[in-house]
């Protein structure tokens, strides 16, 4: 597949250059893969995430007030190396410790864990929370083997807000784990994606088929099935999520409909329409929703549905203002 | 080790870079399609570093490779290959001076296998590079005990065992890492990381001049 | 091509339903195709736009404080009918008149013009400004025959901000025309797009080709050419734009890099990187930039570059806060 | 008009809906691929409205069709077809009572042609529906002047002229509307709007029972 690029091997480097030129409120040292806010996290814990590139707006689009203090950027779909993670930790630590948020991928876990160990050896307080919101592989997969997917946006938002409010490192870790265990995601797609420099997509489907249980790396999902109508797809995703999450009448929920990069927003809102109807029938009230592209897989045509059970604290944190290049909210809409 | 390890590592680096597309294809079937890119970029960095280092001391070279891989690209292969090379370097440095050269080679491979298992927490049968490096370490130990053992025969035995282990991954269902989410759909596909391990061991064995018993690694 | 839909003929209706469920700060009456802010434009001119659907976040994503008071939604890529436009005008007029912003498409122009005439017959003050920022067909095309494309975002933002500040209808019309004549856009793509209900894309290219001069309806452009590297593409787009716009050393500019729906954000920032370098070399300073998806064509893989010459007033209006479902900014970033 | 105009308009509505895909394909080559959808949806609404109206008065029916099309979908075709039908309705209402039935039919078509030109500001040769409706109106006027003229022969003449005009659009470079941005690339392609005009006129002519001289409209 064709792409608009220069040398594909420079894609990430050039993206970072463009991003830093476009957003002067961000910083990086030289050609480093660590991007930070130019406002240091004074008097509070710093929040850091990172992972492979190709997921924009994630992760660097969310650096700023109320979300991340730093992001460590890997190559496309590849965890950043230990050294970069360590550099990020050192850069943003102002003596109050560093909270690392990441998704459950061997590469990320290993690189972040090694860097956290090294930072601790240097006397920096570091905690790590690994997101596992994905039910793509089926609910029989052990929770600690699940991927972190677009439900992570809710972790980022809540932890970022709590850090700004002055929560301790231990509290932030607990919050991240709580949000993670209150959150489930399921994704579907019509194709895989083509990495820069590659000519073939990770997979492709025949007309009229869909892949169920995809993540955001163009990986195949659990099964290839006949494409059915949107309402039927949504009913099935919500049903699988709910069998695991067990929302009850009277519960409050947050919903994310995340486009994977090539999905028209029209389709995302048609999906949201159905999610809203199904939850209303269950007596679950949607208190906050995010419909758009939060965590993409290059130009993959697919989307995921995330549901999260809310409590007063997490709802407040989700509605808290934030100001970053690709997510800004002022006070509570409505 | 009497052969030129630097030459051998450079040879391995070149072979890894040439296998980029095939390794990506293997990873596209089981994962996210980037394994070849990560390996190629890491070993391009290895090639650069090796070409500019003065030292020819095996432990130094392995340490250099380990640190380079660890900090080049990241990914899953970074910490795994990085720790493997760093641990084999340490194994050589700490080796009992009374050990023979083939015994040291086997000890280095064993250290690599241990490091990969420690770092990734995968077991044999999980369909990862562990399924290549663990049998390789066992075969290396056996080969090093033979009366006519050389580093070359040890590496050859390791490479052949790694290749067999890699071939065997086709029959396994992934139980860890990215591929594990595909469950039964992973059957029939060869693990990319195991393939890379084999490629590196074969390149080293070939450079060490061991006679090739039979063609071992198929990149698909 | 497969899509995630129910009945394709209901796609727009269901999208609107989803959008209204997701954004309770918006309103519409019954099954109307007119969406308004729930905060009426008291004591000032109302700003209305509309056009075919399939361009999300445009247009309804920009209803709210500092941008639109109402949007009239047509079917996919089809202008809304006269009656809907008239309904929108009547709904938002609070006695201070209604400013209609639209792109230069026969359908939109005819339907909006007829509605404006009818509204004037009812005694409502209505003005209309038709955007023509596209150089896709070449700079030899008469300016009044050019399409309105993603440069319109800059018109929406400035006119919306000025309306909130209390500008008169005549001033708003003049502002829209001024911004339009200070703005030029050029787009390229790797494919067309497939309308809901259709199985074929409007066009498709061979591997290694690109279409130069596309708009945001999957229309073919001026020419099909070999795909070259991103920097070369950007140089050419900027050059063509600048031959017409004639930016001079010391000028201040706004830049929009607009993704058409299927373009990874990574590619958009690589494009921005080059635009920033080229303008810097010309001694033109970029005072504000928008990189992302503002005006899409379903899932088309393509992007456009928009340059606008700024003055103090238009720069201030672009930086003015806004709060809408898909574009929120607080005070000046940086 | 002695034939059943309601039946004829219903027949036209059905034909337009059946031609949806072909009209979209024509528009994909020159524009944004939605012309068939807009036409089909508008004429589905027309079919509904016609089926539920009591009146059989031609001017009423044409006014109903005009208002329905104008408010159904929009697009470029909405105001153009809408104004065309509304103006032909007005032409019938205001027609000099001394005019013959074929003369009234021709006057209605002339009014439609004027309305489309006034509304869209396109001229003959710009590669739009004007290139179908203007020759149709001229042919209708001529046919109405023939001694054995009927509404059917007038409509048949109009349809044939519209078809010829539509065919001729292939040789034109678009100078207005969406297609104009494609310049020379529009050569060889048939204008979708002209095609629709012809389809409607042919359906009316067929319902009016005029003998078909030769097959006229090709939908590609
Ligand atoms: N926990 C683990 N232990 C051992 N090997 C692993 C582990 N996780 C992944 N691997 C190996 O890494 C390979 C994938 O590497 P790569 O594609 O570079 O990383 P990523 O999965 O991050 O994209 C797999 O084929 C497997 O052999
Ligand atoms: N200004 C105009 N005058 C006459 N006909 C026009 C004009 N603009 C467009 N058309 C006709 O409309 C047709 C396209 O209609 P349609 O596809 O429904 O609208 P849109 O261009 O808005 O998608 C063209 O083929 C042409 O015949
Ligand atoms: Mg990866
Ligand atoms: Mg991989
Ligand atoms: Mg259209
Ligand atoms: Mg059209």
TrEMBL record, chains A, C:
Domain (DhaK): residue spans on this chain: 7-327
Keywords: Kinase, Transferase
Example GO BP: glycerol catabolic process
MF annotations from Gene Ontology: glycerone kinase activity
Pfam families, per database record: Dak1
InterPro entries linked: DhaK_dom, Dihydroxyacetone_Kinase
Gene Ontology terms: cellular component: cytosol
Designated name of the protein: Dihydroxyacetone kinase substrate-binding subunit DhaK
Natural source organism: Arthrobacter globiformis (strain ATCC 8010 / DSM 20124 / JCM 1332 / NBRC 12137 / NCIMB 8907 / NRRL B-2979 / 168)
Organism ancestry: Bacteria, Bacillati, Actinomycetota, Actinomycetes, Micrococcales
Recorded name of the encoding gene: dhaK
From TrEMBL, chains B, D:
Coiled-coil regions, chain positions: none
InterPro entries, alphabetized: DhaK_L_YcgS (IPR012737), DhaL_dom (IPR004007), DhaL_dom_sf (IPR036117), Dihydroxyacetone_Kinase (IPR050861)
A Pfam cross-reference name: Dak2
GO CC annotations on file: cytosol
SMART domains in UniProt: Dak2 (SM01120)
Domain (DhaL): residue spans on this chain: 3-206
Keywords per UniProt: Kinase, Transferase
Transmembrane parts of this sequence: none
GO biological process: glycerol catabolic process
A molecular function (GO) term: glycerone kinase activity
Protein name: Dihydroxyacetone kinase nucleotide-binding subunit DhaL
Organism of derivation: Arthrobacter globiformis (strain ATCC 8010 / DSM 20124 / JCM 1332 / NBRC 12137 / NCIMB 8907 / NRRL B-2979 / 168)
Gene field: dhaL
């Amino acid at each position: 597949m064709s792409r608009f690029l220069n040398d594909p091997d420079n894609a990430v480097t050039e993206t970072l250059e463009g991003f830093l030129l476009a957003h002067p409120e961000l910083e990086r040292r030289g050609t480093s893969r660590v991007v930070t806010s130019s406002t240091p996290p004074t008097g509070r814990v710093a929040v850091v995430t990172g992972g492979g590139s190709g997921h924009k707006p994630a992760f660097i689009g969310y650096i700023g007030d109320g979300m991340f203090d730093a992001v460590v950027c890997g190559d496309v779909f590849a965890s950043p190396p230990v050294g970069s993670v360590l550099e990020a930790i050192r850069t943003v630590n102002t003596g109050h410790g560093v909270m690392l948020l990441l998704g459950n991928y061997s590469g990320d876990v290993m690189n972040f864990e090694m860097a956290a160990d090294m930072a601790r050896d240097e006397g920096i307080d570091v905690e790590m929370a690994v997101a596992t919101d994905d039910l793509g592989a089926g609910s029989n997969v052990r929770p600690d083997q699940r991927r972190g997917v677009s439900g992570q946006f809710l972790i980022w938002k809540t932890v970022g807000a709590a850090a700004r409010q002055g929560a301790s490192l231990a509290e932030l870790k607990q919050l991240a784990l709580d949000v993670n265990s209150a959150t489930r995601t399921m994704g579907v797609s019509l194709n895989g994606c083509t990495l820069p420099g590659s000519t073939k997509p990770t997979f492709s489907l025949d007309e009229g088929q869909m892949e169920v249980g995809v993540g955001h790396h163009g990986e195949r999902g659990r099964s290839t099935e006949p494409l059915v109508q949107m309402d039927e797809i949504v009913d099935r995703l919500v049903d699988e999520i709910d069998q695991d999450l067990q929302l009850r009448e009277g519960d409050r929920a947050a919903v994310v409909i995340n486009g994977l990069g090539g999905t028209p927003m029209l389709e995302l809102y048609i999906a949201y329409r159905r999610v809203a109807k199904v939850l209303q029938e269950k007596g679950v009230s949607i208190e906050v929703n995010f419909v758009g592209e939060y965590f993409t897989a290059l130009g993959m045509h697919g989307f995921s549905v995330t549901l999260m059970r809310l409590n007063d604290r997490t709802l407040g944190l989700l509605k808290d203002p934030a100001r970053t290049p690709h997510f800004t909210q002022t006070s509570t809409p409505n | 080790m009497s052969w030129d390890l630097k030459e051998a590592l450079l040879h391995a680096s070149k072979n890894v870079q040439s296998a980029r597309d095939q390794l990506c294809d293997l990873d596209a079937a089981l994962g996210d399609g980037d394994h070849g890119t990560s390996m190629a970029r890491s070993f391009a960095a290895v090639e650069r570093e090796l070409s500019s280092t003065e030292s020819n001391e095996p432990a130094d070279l392995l340490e250099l490779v380990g640190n380079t891989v660890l900090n080049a690209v990241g990914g899953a292969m970074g910490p795994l290959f990085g720790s493997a090379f760093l641990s084999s370097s340490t194994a050589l440095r700490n080796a009992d001076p009374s050990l023979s050269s083939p015994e040291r080679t086997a000890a280095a491979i064993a250290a690599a296998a241990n490091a990969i298992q420690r770092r990734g927490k995968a077991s044999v049968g999980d369909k990862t590079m562990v399924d290549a490096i663990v049998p390789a370490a066992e075969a290396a130990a056996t080969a090093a005990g033979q009366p006519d053992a050389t580093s070359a025969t040890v590496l050859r035995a390791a490479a052949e065992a790694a290749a067999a282990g890699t071939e065997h991954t086709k029959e396994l269902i992934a139980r860890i890492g990215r591929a594990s989410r595909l469950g039964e759909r992973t059957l029939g596909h060869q693990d990319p990381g195991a393939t890379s391990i084999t490629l590196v061991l074969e390149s080293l064995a070939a450079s060490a001049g061991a006679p090739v018993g039979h063609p071992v690694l198929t990149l698909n």
